[in-house]
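User: Could you write out the 3D structure of this protein bound to nicotinamide-adenine-dinucleotide? I've included everything you need below.
Assistant: Certainly. Input first, then the structure.
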Amino acid sequence: MKISIVGAGAMGSLFGGLLAESGNDVTLIDVNDAHIDAIRADGLRLATDGSDRHVKLRICRPEEATDVPDLLVVFTKTLHTRAALSGVRHLIGPDVHLLSLQNGLGNVETISEFVDAERVLIGVTTWPADLAGPGHVHSHGKGVVRLMAADGIARPIVEHVSEALSTAGLQCTSDATVWAAIWEKVAFNAALNSICAVSGCTVDQLGLTPDGRRLADEVVSEVLSVAQRLGIDVDPDKCRTSVAGAIAQHKGHKPSMLQDVLAGRRTEIESINGAVVSAAGRLDMEVPTTETLLSLVRLVEARAVA
Ligand code: NAD
């Protein structure tokens, strides 16, 4: 497939590198000049379990991209999706499909401002990735990808994309229950990311007092009660167990929202806690802990950029 990836940071580079290695025609598109220069000079340094290699692939800035792809993958942070798609609007031809595996809610709505909803694929991934420096991405362990057409209709493109990702080693399945997985991940992130971002705690440090665990549990319950009211078949017990498991095991881990706060960057809070609070408001539901954490993260962000 001819694949362009807009937002070629940690996840975009990991996916782009693996898709290029498995024979797809991949172009990375980003605005980070140091990353672009490093990949142009030496290829993408891709470190996965047991293998550290350089992958040759194309990378350019949005205004330099000319080839209309079959698939445009959006892998910016959610707060940059609209700007990123505006920058590559000239690549969104009549046959292009767009895929988002970004965290949070509202991705389909934002992407649908640029393309008919029937050409949007949505999904969730458990693959982790970190940018170790310009042109250098790390991943470890094994993850999966689950995706579907955003409108729920089983089209051949879904299988086609899923097969390309699996052939690249990304273990993808097409799955009609993706919305439950998306909401469960939002609940997990709304709890751990926002509490760590405002407290400065690493994930395991949330277990230092019963309050940390209680707050996280409250957020999971609030978020998933909104999902259930929307008719989504989420599993709150499974989600609470994963949150407890993360607190027990993720020693020293700083979630991305804490890393963003520490680096003085804006976070994905609006598409996580923010989107849940908006959805709850539309349903006349109260999500007080999620909402308080939203206000606190907004305050911390405002202090960082002031
Ligand atoms: P990242 O910050 O490493 O990468 C985002 C990239 O987007 C950056 O390279 C940035 O320069 C680029 N970008 C920003 N504005 C742009 C624009 N206007 N045009 C083109 N490029 C632009 O982020 P990430 O960790 O790769 O995360 C991407 C998404 O995937 C997020 O929604 C995140 O929550 C989700 N996610 C991340 C992980 C992970 O382990 N990193 C795992 C699952 C999901």
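The chain has two domains: 2-176, 179-305.
User: Perfect, thank you.
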